[in-house]
## 1
Amino acid sequence: MKNPYRRHWTLDPEVTFLNHGSYGACPARIQLKQQELRQEMEREPVRFMGHRTSLLDHSRARLAEFLGAPMTDLAFVPNATHGVNAAIGAQRWQPGDEVLVTDHEYNACRNALDFSAERSGAIVVVVKLPFPLTDPQQVVEAMMAKVTKRTVFCLVDHITSPTALVLPVAEIIQAMRNKGIRTLVDGAHAPGQLPLNLEELGADYYTGNLHKWVCAPKGSAFLYVRPELQEEIHPVTISHGYNAGTENRSRFLQEFDWTGTFDPTAWGSVAHVLDFMEDLVDGGWNAIMKRNHELTLSMRTMLAERFGTGLPAPDSMIGTMASLFIPSAAMKTVEKRGTSIYTELQNQWGIQIPAIPLPDDLGTVVRFSVHIYNTESEYHRLAEAIESLV
């Protein structure tokens, strides 16, 4: 059956697009809205830039409602990697301090942590997460087992990039806080995939992308910072906001809202895409996330049965994206052909999906995404493609 929502996206109809998790996809109407904002900017650039604060605050207010956080605690950033860099840059680690990160952390953010640790003399402690696993508590136990008296900071994914696991961040944050350890949550995939209440969650820092599951234009992301930590944090680029007046706005917002001349229309489109998606389906965002989650679970079960590889994690650790091991027979086939799973699926079947080799010879996983425009038939096509290699 044809998906009634696909028409709102400009995705190539010849491609089975199961990779929303990498860069997202922006609806056509929001692309047009951003173009309208750009045209307004180019008609009178000085006036537009002079009034950018009201544009950003309109989006920020709507985003604050969506994320369950005060708008004064939310700064816009171009992507979650920028947010991670800013939060890490605010730390003043001493030689011998230990900072925790898991072996499932996104490479770009792990690089930011390593870079800062090398400069300060801090020690990066890598927590090896069990995978496959049967209980989210295994993650908490693995992380806390690496905590020592020298641990001062923890970087943890809300949803891991290679394995698509929803980690128990609430429990991790509380356990770290009990030890006096600051926590930065890399929530790159979480907004629009999971319901969020950042104020209740209680992370010291939380950054997330809006171009992924929220479907905002590329260059849309946010950084949440607890109020008591805002004075010590700065954007990656220091600019006019550093010494701007703060009569009506905090230094935090002054600095992050203006880091030099840039195109603010992606940020200015955030309120529009949140409203568009809310109105797209009866029941709004909650209905979208529920539908996507249920389809992810059912398709994960179907694919695992057809692959014959089993489920690597419990349902409670799955959002609207999941990873499954690729059968070893399929891997042997592509090795004999001198190609790769990704290339075979893309070139022979028109399926856009990442195939990710895991460390320690665990195997290779295929990570599929589910959004409102996807249909069951697309995942059955993926199963057929993998079976053809077996």
## 2
Amino acid sequence: MMKLNQKMYYQDNLLNELIVDNFAGGGGASIGIELATGRPVDIAINHDEDAIAMHKVNHPFTTHYQEDVFAIDPEEVTNGRPVGIAWFSPDCKHFSKAKGGAPVEKKIRGLSWVILKWAMSEVSPRCIFMENVEEIQTWGPLKEINGKMYPDPARSGETFKGFVAMLTDGISKEHPSFAEACEFLKIAPDSAEAES
């Protein structure tokens, strides 16, 4: 009887909670989420017009936002409803082995910081998923070489570890990742928002 009650509890909560797909492309992740949960994704976000157009065709019951993920206000788009699942598929090409020794961009490498924005928000998702390549674990500061930016091998993984710590136990203001997170989230390092 206990297992049945638990199953009903989770089903009822899932029906009341929103499912949000950030960096929604054509809808592959949304299809997987729908297959796993038995219902469509409620909100899909992507800055790219073509991606949103394709997602709309594949997911007609989803509310779509063609917007930069950092420009989205989680409380506003959810209308105060709880979020059960927040899915994030930030661009992985600047971490992938396939990228090789090519220069990288800080802006693209920092897309994962938006996850912290959702985690810190009032909607505080119950489950947060991040889809990426395993090399995301090497996410660290960049250094300039001959006028181009490359990952600093001496600091490999530093930013990733700070990112995970911010989502779990927290970090000190002195940690190098703290300043980067504040920069991407456009919050002052000495603000109350940064303290949370």
## 3
Amino acid sequence: MTKEVVIIGGGIGGIYVLRNLLAKKDAVKEGLHLTLIKREKSGWVSVCGLPFALRGWYGIDKTEINKPQFFLDQGVDFRTGSEVTKINVEENSVVTLRTGEVLRYDYLIIATGRKPAVPAVVEKTNLEGVYTFNNEDDARKIEAAMKDAKNAFVYGHGIGGIQVASAFSARGLKTTLFGRPPSLIASRLDPDMGDMLKEWLEKAGIRFILDSEKGITAIKGDGGRVKSVVIGEEEIPADVVVISMGKKPDVSLAKEAGIEIGEESHGIVTDSAMHVKKGRRYVSNVYSVGDCVEVIDGITHRPRLNQAAFAAVVQAKVVTDNVFSDIRGQLDLYSSYEPSLGPTAADFAGLLVGSVGVTSEAASRAGLKTVSGKATKLTKARYFPGAKPLTLKLIFDAYTKKLIGAQMLGEATVAERVNELAVAIYAGITAAEMRNMERCYDPSLALLIDVTIDAAEAAMGITAVY
């Protein structure tokens, strides 16, 4: 009998489970029928590409990688503009749709993603020009509002908020960003590194208000459109307002079905195979992936969220492997999702920012003592055209001296360094080993003594003499 797989959610997690299953569909003798249900009317959209579309680098339409018809042509029951209203795990695996239709499944993947966190003062407003930034529909509204706008206001000093602020500034809008201390992207950067990012963005024309005492006290409008935002006693002109103060896991469906939700992260609890948990057991034919899922931190071993595309892609591989392992009865196909290090890279107004592992503050909260070293150096020989400075901070466990975190800012070579240092953390490389490791050299590509060496020596208390 044909195996039925139902995927709830068409974000990166759900789409990659679908893509992976399609690639192996012919290997299922019984046959494999795939259904994907998503609220949006689009197909596969690269949400990560939307901030750059707002900068004007390309049109928002370019971010739709595959239209729904692409999947329909491959035999997928690809349902857009639709929504699941109930999951019933007990009654022979039943999903009830808003239309009243009931779908039975052999395997269910919950990929419901995230929803924006919104302060009460914003929830009460119905003014035009006030938006969240969570999907392509939001991006279209923001882009339309930008055309006649002169002043922009962003609430949120994480990656999403800064990307939107960078887009506004790049398009000539006078931009103010409001957030809480201590610094920018506090979940990924220590204050000293966050302050460097803030200084760069201030030069790009963005004004920052980072204040723990003040909050948005009012959003004022004129003729039904937003006019200004009041912070404390100051009224800030704003023709467009974007709220990007964080994303909450969208777990309402799972919670109503009795699936366990993490107390700290508020994400769906899974085992390493990505099975969801209900009561005292993990459900063998129900999985969850993506922004709605709780993960285990690779350094602190505590539960947290990792709402990033790279995490969803890996989780989707694990789910695909385990669905086929179950269908075919082959244990050698089984795989697991390892604790997360959260490698991150982003472009803010031309400054590349990267991080992996823990920040000093996160390590301290987990009871880990650390030593760190920071260095700034060019990415290639000083006499070579295109040489740019890069600042690197390395964080080591104070006792083992193993690398547990890295942060960097520069105009080049950031993403590849993040990946390199993620491997170093997984391998348990120490500061001494990093210092004495041979590295490639060519004056057009790299320095003879890389910034990594200087940062490791700084953590060891060694003064560089090169």
## 4
Amino acid sequence: MAPFSATASAPDVKAGRRTASEYATAFADASPRLSRTQALVEAERCLYCHDAPCMTACPTGIDVPSFIRRIAEDNLRGAARAILQANPLGGTCARVCPTEELCEQVCVRHHQGGVGQGTPVAIGRLQRYAVDAVMDKPVTALFTRAGSTGKRVAIVGAGPAGLACAFGLARLGHEVVVHDARPAGGGLNEYGLATYKMAGGFAQAELNWLMQIGGITLQTRWRLETAAQLQALREGFDAVYLALGLAATHRLGIPGENLSGVRDAVDFIADLRQAADPAQLPIGRRVVVIGGGMTAVDAAVQSKLLGAEEVHLVYRRGPEQMSASGAEQEWALTHGVSIHHWMTPVAIVGDGHVSAVRFARGAAIGEGEERLVADLVFKAIGQRLDDSVLAGSGLTLSGGRIQADAEGHTSVPGIWAGGDARAGGRDLTVEAVEDGKRAALAMHASLTA
């Protein structure tokens, strides 16, 4: 979707609200790589626990004590290999994983001196330090590819699950063709994450690094639209892996939703990610974001960074029910975003272009209605699988997503599925990677049986 353009009906939506230096500062890396001294000092804080809870808490099972010990020994190649062996997209996950709810949450250091009194080892930042150190070296310096099996696998979706699966299959000697509807691969990593989390074109750098293993072809601008296409893939390849992601967005279902100035937050984030210069992207002076997840936080914070004066993030339940982590919520507050809870949108108001949103207050804070003035409204109420493309495919759906087991087997022989499109899970990048990794091993076992 093309970026929104200011018109006469949008009196306070414009680009260039900040200076060039302000934009550069605002969209710089939110958590820069540790220096060598910082990394060594932090690594020494690790207790190298036996049966480490941090390793158990990682969906991809990274041996955290092992890679941190190698950092302490200044063996960055060894540290990176330990990470990437378990998680081939370890660089992205180091940047975007909610480590405060996963590995760092269970760090023994976190509980020293009483529950919550200590500071956990900065596992995510140490992971980034190690992985970034090898990104300028060929992937073959860490991993080799097995001899050709003569088998070909089609993957639909070049996001975290699809790329992890492709890399795993390629290492095992299979030929892989990854199909994706977008102009560039990367999926959520390239189009759906805040710019300050994936600064410096890292998503494409990581993709290109993984592709060096060989045996992977990326076919972009290819969209799965019919069951006939899926059948053609089944006939043309030895196996198919569906890593479709959640391309469709939910609707609010309220009056005024189609007014100019009302947009899906995922489209806004994608526009910003692909913009050559953030100064080119128009933003409203007053922005309302509806939702309670990471996408809502990313849209709200980036609206502020683009120069919006007022940004309201509105969620229909309480803070405990928000899927955005506590750290994400704090990040939004730190950047001047106002967070409102127990408010449900009932109507978007405007004459051609949005001017305000009306909300009903929940019972938790009393009955009533509130009106927030807005020049732009971003909807971040979740995404869904466009299951129309799977009609007649024979695949079983559960809760609007593809039913598959932990190894990705679906109800149709020869078709595996994983990532956000698979029923179950928490829609985390790291879980999508684990899905792809497991599916690659299961497909390899099936193809070589």
